[in-house]
Specification:
With 217 residues, this protein is mostly helical. It is built from eight helices and no strands.
Length: 217
């Protein structure tokens, strides 16, 4: 399953990069990277809203004693989401508090030079952990399998359709031909849904794990 998920992600990234460059939505590789980080930020915002609602609904839908069991397991997925948000917020927090901006004169004093090297070293140390955390969090849907094995595919499906609707309302890819726009708007949610349904089927047929049994319904 992980190989299929990673392959789907790579194919999607290559396709989006091709579209951005081919239709002039991004002028160079830096613009493509910026676009993908914007998409990740949108995904995290949507997830931040969806995660507590979806998890709460899952826990409430379960019957005792599984309800208490799931409540005890919520901490790890919530901690994974919080850790990633904090990691991504640190650079913005540093600039937002006014310690660093585009007009900062780093040579004004020895303290400023020391601060420059300290911030640079910290961000270089943080970057690989943040990037790896983003990749793993999106693939594993923030460790929600610790809650129950059926939650990641269900939450991933809900999340990707929400992001697709958000793209429609904000007019993403409006400058590309209609057919291409439809393909790229629906490609991600349809492919993620297909992989998620396959994962749920494998859980049911190979391991006897179903949503109904998880909820004791």
């Amino acid at each position: 399953m992980k190989r299929v998920q990673v392959l789907r992600t790579i194919v999607g990234l290559v396709a989006v990069t091709w579209m951005l460059l081919s239709y002039g939505l991004a002028s160079d590789a830096d613009a493509v990277v910026d676009d993908r980080f914007d998409q990740i930020r949108t995904t995290l915002i949507v997830l931040g809203v969806t995660f507590p609602v979806a998890v709460a609904a899952f826990v409430v839908a379960a019957r005792p004693p599984n309800r208490r069991l799931f409540l005890r397991r919520v901490g790890k997925p919530a901690g994974a989401l919080l850790a990633l948000v904090v990691a991504l917020a640190v650079p913005r927090l540093i600039t937002g508090l006014g310690y660093v901006d585009e007009e900062t004169n780093w040579t004004a004093s020895a303290g400023r030079v020391a601060l420059l090297f300290a911030l640079g070293a910290f961000l270089l140390w943080l970057a690989p952990f943040a990037l790896y955390g983003i990749a793993q969090s999106l693939v594993h849907v923030f460790r929600t399998a610790d809650l129950h094995e059926t939650v990641p595919p269900l939450l991933a499906t809900l999340l990707v359709w929400e992001v697709a609707l958000f793209d429609v309302f904000r007019g993403a890819y409006d400058s590309v031909p209609f057919g291409v726009r439809v393909a790229f708007t629906l490609g991600a949610p349809l492919s993620v849904t297909a992989v998620a349904m396959w994962e749920l089927r494998r859980l049911r047929t190979r391991h006897g794990i179903t949503l109904r049994r998880a909820l004791l319904r």
